[in-house]
Amino acid sequence: MSPPPLLLNALRPAPVWPTPSSPTLAWASRPQRAHLLLASLLAGLLLAGCATPPPVADAPAAAPAPLEAPPAPRVAVPEPPPTPGARPASGFDEIWPEPVLGPEAAVWQWAESQPLPAPLVRANSRWQPVRWSELPGWGRDALPQAWNAWLRSCERPAPTLGALCQEVRRLSIASASAQHEWMMRHLQPFRVQSLEGNPRGLLTGYYEPLLHANRVRQGPYQTPLHAVPPGLSRDRPWFSRQQMATDPQALAQLQGREIVWLADPLDALLLQIQGSGRVLVREPDGRQQLVRLAFAGHNGHPYRSVGRWLLDRGAIRAGTWEAIRAWAAAHPEQINEMLWSNPRTVFFREESLNELEAQFGPRGAQGVALTPGRSIAVDPRSIPYGTPVWLHSSGPFIELRRLVLAQDTGAAIVGAARADFFTGWGEQAFFQAAGIKQPVHLWALWPRSAP
User: In what ranges is there compositional bias, type Pro residues (predicted)?
Assistant: First the structure.
């Protein structure tokens, strides 16, 4: 998954942040670095004021690669006129300045006249039926942008939602107004709330890191990322992170399973926390190629935040990557102790990234490629994979009112209205993922008359 050069948001336990000398900021100018490091500081202050954070999501086991569906046409979204004092543009908070489908349309009147169905109860949520008019911003989203993500979900649809896919494909070249009208006629909005009736949830962001690596162990490249070892079993925990570095039996099983070598053990931890990432690998012949390391499994141990471990010992005052790196630089003899405080390790598999594949995100728990700005990770006990969801979230850096698809999950994504927003990869995603820690409301859009 999961996702994600190079920034973890402040909501995740032990967020990881780049340093001025790290590959993360190699592309940035001096002013850009200053802005990004300021974002790191702000996020650190947010975390410092929070209670003990939940564990960072591990990516789910990946499914076999689905067939690629042709992407829907891209639609340029006109920017609304600037508002004095408004937050800086995030790249994800644009909406149409005028409704695509206004309340005077016949479909609005028809939808408002339909009887509301009974609430639906999921394992970890209660869905309360509502009118379309209750969805903040409905009618102003550039829905054609979301259709790519929906087409992806139709590659591996759930039975109830799969019945819609023929129409979803047909409408991939339709106008935004036609897509809005079709959804209002065929889908019923349900407000997602806790079993106790609380609709307020938490939104965080995640992304896909980009790191540099070497195919062979040499020079500074001494930290391996491993493929799944032969002795791994889902029925019982495998060796812990510390045992993988010290136990002869674990080392023997890992022999030959190294995919690439990194120069920094904290970069390896970053990739394991995010669950997947893009890696620029230098081959023995000097050639460089971009590959994706995708989640393939983990060793079955619980996740423990190294940032929390340092905070609890008073070693740092903010759980940011800047603070963690600074502490590690000052205490090189204790780096292993810090890393070993988190017994969980993630294993990867290598995937090629040609020019076409590089335009898409990693595969999420649904088994389809994630779409930046339109894919979210959810608790599948609350919202089934592939469900179209209307998302509304307002925070200091971003305002979101848009259609997204539930296509991923993670160990920290637990709760009725809990969502992780996939921002993509590269410089902009790096900044965007950092700023998202804010309340969210979700509405599941479910086929009418479907259980």
Answer: 67-85
Distance CA 198, CA 191 (A): 10
Backbone angles phi, psi at 358, to 5 degrees: -70, -10
Same domain for 244 and 126, yes or no, is no
Same domain, 320 and 392: no
- Residue 437: CB partners within 8 Å, gap ≥ 6? 9, 10, 11, 43, 46, 202, 203, 204, 395
**8 A C-beta contact, residue 56 and residue 307:** no
Whole-number Cα distances in Å, 401 to 390, 404, 442, 450: 7, 9, 10, 25
Q: Is residue 79 part of a domain?
A: no
Closest of 434, 344, 438, 326 to residue 15, by C-alpha: 434
From the list 360, 423, 450, the residue with the least C-alpha distance to 92 is 423
One domain for residues 40 and 30: yes
Give the pLDDT confidence score for residue 93 in this predicted structure: 65
In one-letter notation, the amino acid at residue 131 is R
Q: Enter the tokens of residue 353.
A: 């990234």
CB-count burial class (<10 Å; 0-12, 13-18, 19+) for 49: exposed
Same domain, 232 and 331: yes
Decide if pLDDT at 51 tops 50.
Answer: no
Contact (CB, 8 A) for 310 and 324: yes
Specify the amino acid at residue 187. L
Residues 321 and 379 in one domain: no
**325 and 397 assigned to the same domain:** no
Q: Give the total number of structural domains in the chain.
A: 2
Check residue 357 and report its DSSP letter: G
pLDDT band at 348 (very low <50, low <70, confident <90, very high): very high
Question: pLDDT (tens digit, 9 = 90+) per residue, 127-141?
Answer: 999 999 999 999 989
* CB 376 within 8 Å of CB 413: no
Question: E strands within 106-257?
Answer: 120-121, 126-129, 187-193, 201-208, 210-214, 223-226
Q: Which of 275, 99, 70 minimizes the C-alpha distance to 173? A: 70
Domain that holds residue 417: 106-205+361-447
Q: Domain holding 277: CATH number?
A: 2.40.240.50
Cα→Cα distances 361→149, 152, 357, 364, 390, Å: 11, 11, 8, 9, 21
For 66-92, write each residue's pLDDT tens digit: 323 333 332 333 333 333 333 444 567
Question: From the CB of residue 311, how many other CB atoms can be counted at a distance below 10 Å?
Answer: 22
By residue count, the chain amounts to 451
C-alpha span between 57 and 65 (Å, rounded): 22
